[in-house]
Write a structure and sequence with these properties.
Layout lengths: L1 H23 L7 E5 L5 H11 L4 E3 L10 H5 L10 E4 L10 E6 L2 H11 L9 H13 L5 E5 H6 L1 H11 L7 H6 L1 H15 L18 H14 L1 H7 L4
Parallel strand pairs: 1-3, 1-4, 2-3, 4-5
Length: 240
Amino acid sequence: MFLRNIVFCSTVLFSVFLINLELRGGIEESSVYLLSSPRSANTWTRYCIENLVGRRTKEIDPRKAMNEPLAYLLNYEVDETLPFVYKLHRPPVGENENYLIVLVRDYMELFESAEMHTNVWPLIFSIKNYMDILKTYDEWSKHKRLLIYYEDLVLKPRTELKRLCNFFSCSDEKVSPFLRNIKEHKKKLIKIYEEYERPIKTNHDTKYYKKKMKKRRLLRLKKKVRAINPTVYKKYLSRY
């Protein structure tokens, strides 16, 4: 029994050593979190990462139909030797050693969409979770984080995709050919997304729901979001 305990403790300590060794490495040796509220182009960003960077992406929730790498569903190659990029909709608890990408979309679009298309208001759609995601980004190591706004990804894809490649310390040479076929890429992804998840109605219109909202509701929602964390709001959401 004593010997067995020694072996067990040694195995645990060695595992911790390996994890710490990985975390001390660069992004090529580390896992990456892709964090956002739902409906912030997370799946599209996963697709871009897999095609431009070659990393496999994976959703933590095993119940999700698209939790495995998209490459497995759409039949293209990814590098099986590189660590995963993990899709999350809630901030990781007690963890800021890995690399982090946060996707932000106009909260007015998100919450109006959630109210119109979900019967229950789950935690991941809550205003607090939305602000917690930004707070997590704000507190993360500056050299291990990247912030991408949904609107910039839609309207300025070349700039944002090059930033994405640069974050992964890889060449952006694939960006131009990728963008030349962007309509085909989107068509392919939308088809599989609608098959496994839900229909897409906005067609990447960055103000699809906002245009339908009354001004009084817009102002009320803005006040509510800003009240949760005025500092974070001013730093990251004043554009809205």
